[in-house]
Design goal:
CATH class of the largest domain: Alpha Beta
CATH architecture of the largest domain: 3-Layer(aba) Sandwich
Strand content: 15-25%
Number of domains: 2
Shape: globular
Helix content: 25-40%
Radius of gyration: 26 Å
Number of helices: 22
CATH topology of the largest domain: Rossmann fold
Oligomer: single chain
Length: 591
């Protein structure tokens, strides 16, 4: 303990912090108690930044709030919040809670003048109070990270600790507004991110591997939102981890943190790792396939010939391939991936498209998804683009991640006497979302989707083959599996400016190798009496032949060979390759 007071700058979250008489005394006591647990008698001085007037004066209407709710809940990490908040256009009828939660986040994301003023208020407060620790809750973490995470302000946190709690920084909508990627505060002594998996106020995890970053699990379940700052600050894991480490020099030094990091590097994950999923035996007999399990074993043999160790390849088949089972294994696949490491995800089974409601409350787009064993046409029992994106978007840029999909997304069922199709047609209640009654013809017809998507107009004139169209689909309406760009809500100019400000390249982009185009079907093939996916069998055959001849194919050459062979065999499916240009033009890095 020193004679110097330990200064803490506190930045409250959503809600009227300036009108809450309990905020200052309760925060102060929680922080003092945490510090005194490890440094009894240490003088603690808590200063507070209030910023509510900035948001009170900013424009906000019901449409903006409804749009923010829709985007904030895209992540799939929030359950039930949408029903509670509602999407009412009657602003006068909205709960005050809504105005001061999602409404404030919407204002922050949409109004650059407001964001700039909020950033400056944080920088001014740090300059005025010179805190040793910055504690930021909820929206306070957004405005503080927006200031401190920018390259121009990187030195501001030198010698300071940063604690975020109930934070939306990692939420896809918020991350979008930060250029699509979260970067660490490398000059800070330590950054602790307190995360409660029950927090329904759009809070999210952050995946960073920086030596001075630590995510701390602080689960509590006391009310509907589970967003209370005091519960975060007094959680046992906060007391025993965070306050112990920030209590003062010598309790837990940066050198010890770096030493722990070096130990973890010594036992890092394998250089190559693969997850292979195959589903033949769907519960509905009409949906069952034949060749998917064979595809998995064929792909495993190819990977092992290419240097993947058998113990580093996980397989999940049929009734074990539930939505939760696949997602848990995908975390095993991608968590901890380092630069120069190879990761492969292979899926063989059904694909589907789920019509979805947009921010305007109307069905205006479809989401592609993989169909796990327990699929029921709900987002909770599907493997969606957003879930997939969450797992890979923060990967190190030099990681090699290949995703191979042998399925289709445009629908279809098995037809007697014809090839078996790997796609599901929706049940009638889901299909109704896509139909309208033609009064003149007295028949049902398919509705034309009109997405409320600011990117669409900029894509329309680019045509097929452009990176934007390849990633987002030719209409811009479909959020296509694996396409991180499709989550972006900024214009190209704003997006580039944000990436430059935060000194990153945007979200990680994987290499995607798909069995067919978005308006086609993926078929099965019988090799004698043994079934495979026509695409999987062909692509592995082309690759094996190339390797046997001593050639090193590029991903583009592999695609071209596969397309040509399927065309010669009269399959009406054209495989697709999407990925960073510099990667797909290089030789495949496997023998």
């Amino acid at each position: 303990m020193t004679n110097e007071p330990l200064k803490v700058l506190c930045i409250h979250g959503v809600g009227h912090g300036d009108k809450d008489p309990q905020l200052v005394p309760t925060w102060t006591k929680a922080i003092e108690d945490g510090i005194h647990r490890w440094l009894p008698g240490q003088q603690v001085v808590c200063d507070f930044l209030f910023y509510d007037e900035l948001f009170s004066d900013a424009k906000l209407d019901a449409a903006t709030v409804a749009e923010a709710i829709a985007k904030l809940t895209l992540s799939g990490i929030v359950h039930g919040i949408g029903d509670w908040l509602g999407l009412s256009r009657d602003f006068g009828g909205m709960q005050d809670t809504l105005r001061w939660t999602a409404g404030m986040v919407a204002q922050w994301a949409d109004e650059e003048k407001l964001r700039a003023a909020a950033r400056q208020s944080v920088l001014d407060a740090i300059a005025k109070y010179d805190p040793r620790i910055v504690v930021a809750h909820s929206l306070g973490s957004l405005i503080s990270y927006d200031a401190l995470g920018r390259k121009a302000n990187s030195a501001v946190m030198a010698g300071r600790d940063y604690i975020t709690l109930g934070s939306q920084i990692g939420n896809p909508f918020v991350r979008d507004a930060l250029g699509g990627r979260i970067m660490g505060l490398l000059q800070a002594d330590q950054w602790f991110h307190l995360y409660n998996s029950h927090d329904k106020a759009f809070a999210a995890q952050i995946k960073l591997k920086d030596p001075n970053f630590q995510q701390v699990s602080t689960d509590f379940d006391i009310d509907f939102l589970d967003h209370d700052a005091i519960q975060y600050l007094t959680h046992p894991n906060t007391l025993n981890t965070v306050w112990r480490k920030v209590a003062g020099p010598g309790v837990m030094s940066r050198a010890l943190v770096q030493s722990a990091r070096e130990v973890s590097v010594a036992v890092r994950t394998p250089r190559r790792r693969a997850l292979l999923v195959g589903i033949n035996d769907y519960p509905n007999p009409a949906n069952q396939l034949e060749g998917c399990v064979n595809d998995v074993f064929l792909m495993s043999s190819i990977l092992q010939e290419c240097g993947f160790e058998a113990e580093d390849i996980r397989v999940v088949l049929n009734d074990r391939a539930t939505a939760s089972g696949i997602l848990q294994r995908m975390q095993w696949l991608l968590d901890g991936a380092e630069d120069k490491q190879d990761r492969v995800f292979f899926y063989s089974g059904h694909g589907a498209q789920i019509p979805q409601y947009g921010e305007n409350g109307k069905v205006d787009h479809v989401d592609e998804c993989l169909v796990p064993y327990d699929f029921d046409w709900s987002m909770a029992k599907a493997i969606t683009d957003v879930q997939f994106h969450e797992l890979y978007s923060q990967l190190p840029y030099d990681t090699s991640f290949l995703a191979i999909f042998d399925c289709c997304h445009s629908g279809g069922m098995t037809r007697d006497g014809g090839p078996r199709v790997r796609g599901l047609a929706p049940p009638d209640d889901i299909r109704h979302r896509m139909l309208q009654w033609n009064v003149k013809e007295q028949m049902w017809e398919e509705r034309k989707l009109e997405p409320d998507n600011p990117q669409v107009d900029s894509w329309k004139n680019k045509g097929a083959g452009s990176p934007a169209v390849d990633y987002a689909g030719q209409t811009g309406a479909t959020r296509r599996l694996g396409r991180a760009m499709a989550l972006r809500s900024l214009s190209n100019k704003e997006y580039d400016a944000m990436r430059k400000a935060f000194d990153h390249k945007g979200p990680y982009l994987p290499v995607l190798l798909e069995a067919c185009q978005e308006n086609q079907l993926s078929y099965e093939y019988r090799d004698g009496a043994t079934s495979y996916g026509a695409f999987t069998y062909t692509v592995t055959q082309i690759f094996r032949t190339s390797c046997a001849g001593g050639k090193h194919m590029t991903w583009q050459q592999l695609l071209k060979g596969t397309q040509e062979k399927l065309a010669r065999l009269k399959y009406n499916q054209t495989p697709v390759l999407v990925g960073p240009d510099k990667v797909i033009r290089k030789a495949i890095p496997w023998k």
